[in-house]
Amino acid sequence: MHVPWAPLLLAVSSIVATSLASPVDVITAASRQKVIPPTDYEVIIIGGGPAGLSALSALARVRRKAVVFDSGEYRNKDTRHQHDVYGWDGAIPSVVRSIARRQILSYPSASIVETKIMDIEYIEEGPIFTATDYKGKRYTARKIVLASGMRDILPPTPGIRAAWGKGIYWCTWCDGYENRDRSLGLLGNFSTEVIKTSIYVQSLNKDVIIYADGTWSYNAAAKVTEEFPDWQAQLASYNVSIDNRPIASIDRVQGSVTEEGEDEFEVKFKSGGSTVRQAFLAGFPAEQASDLAQRLGLEISDQKIVVNKDMETSMPGVYAIGDANSDGSSNVAHAMSSARRAGVTIVHALAAEDAQALSGTQNAPGHK
Length: 368
Description:
Layout: H1 6-20, H2 23-32, E1 43-46, H3 50-60, E2 66-69, H4 93-104, E3 110-113, E4 117-123, E5 128-133, E6 138-141, E7 143-146, E8 150-152, H5 160-163, E9 168-169, H6 172-175, E10 184-187, H7 192-200, E11 208-211, H8 218-227, H9 231-237, E12 241-243, E13 247-254, E14 264-269, E15 274-277, E16 279-282, E17 286-288, H10 292-296, E18 300-301, E19 304-305, E20 318-320, H11 332-359
Parallel strand pairs: 1-2, 1-7, 2-3, 7-20, 9-16, 10-11, 10-16, 11-12
Antiparallel strand pairs: 4-5, 5-6, 8-17, 13-14, 14-15, 18-19
Helix pairs in contact: 1-11, 3-4, 3-11
């Protein structure tokens, strides 16, 4: 049976045994001890969004010295309000971050440094990691957590950037309810994914148009048919239409950038003509917001950092949490949950290493 506190018990028992041993035994035990190299922090966390702050909280709660390096880049920075986080439903993301920072920094072992980390190097002799910021300042730690997030790749279509997070959204669970019963446009390349999206949003929106923006073709349709044979019949049953005309712009004609539920947009086409929609759900691609995973040589699949169930990457001692990792979800609640799991795993790993160094054993309980 796995005992989470076993590494700590091992450390305590080792100290007691040493205090009762003879001088010769003490000298022998001391000679076996493995020295853990001194570092600035035990854990360095890259990213100050929901995932990074949650990881910092998890570590600070057990007095592990950790730091968040926050470059001020957040995927939800353009979002009016965050949803689907109980207790914080409808809160402004920047307000939540401010309160979280203040609460977490009340723990003496927690730090937040506002800078951008440009490189991370693994020092095998430690083993430790060295992080270097954009000014060239270096910081060392025993573990690394990447909470650097994803960056949405928006098309250059005029109007999309200005309305991103303010009528054009990418997460149904985050913003779909606030746009229920409104005319909805789906943005993104014609694909099986956008077809399936038009079906699962029917519990929220009955008036749905897929704006394929010139990406529909006979070949694309054939591929969708191969993956989803009944797609045409299902779209017809829900009265979902496909508009393949290339889009010239999406212009706001009604609504405030700060308030939900009053948006209205005119979709103008390059060939002339226009349609009106009240909200858009986008399926644009996204990429890693930081290149640190590539610099470390981590395994990446479909733009996501591959992790195991404990959020550890292909490099021991490096963890990835939140939107950036491969565990298949992208929202605030997921970011917090993955951070907590990584935090607990890291605490166990640090405790096992400490106990191993203290006792001179090679395989302390819980050590990977």
